[in-house]
Specification:
This protein has helices spanning about 5-20, 35-60, 65-70, 75-105, 110-155. It is an all-alpha fold. The chain has a domain at about 40-140. Helix 2 (about 35-60) packs parallel to helix 5 (about 110-155). The longest helix is centred in the C-terminal third of the chain and has 46 residues, at about 110-155.
Amino acid sequence: MRTVEKFYPLVIATLFTIVFYFQNITIKEIEKFDSVLNGVITISSIIIAFMGTMVSILITLMNTSVMQAIKDYQEGNKLSSFISRPIICGLLLSIYCLSLYVWGDTSNDKLSEFFFLLFIFLLSYFVSASFRIYFISISILRNVLNEKQSKRKQVQKPELNDVWTQEK
């Protein structure tokens, strides 16, 4: 597993957080921040449900050579952690968004900035980790489809030319 593939969600989340930190944006400066929170909760719920469905699809593919190769090279733990991290982060993001409804409207600018930066970090980590597992699952699916096509090409049409004239 390449190091870039392993850590790029964390790097992207950190970069986005640093960029927003230097912009000095707080929650108060964003109009209709409640609508943003509603949208994030909705989209994260949809992505979490998609990942749950994807896990059930991957389970049905356990007998394919692609999944056997993942097991043989002992990459199953990495695959499961790549799936579980965005799911856990999405749940944390949803809970955090709900808590921002209650505690996000603060008069303390530093606290408001901290709340916003934590929101940006969780959101960007969730999105980048979700993209990572999406691309991995598409790659697995593509390999499974290629495997099925090659198996179909291997099965040849039976030769029935001399069925009646074969020696008994």
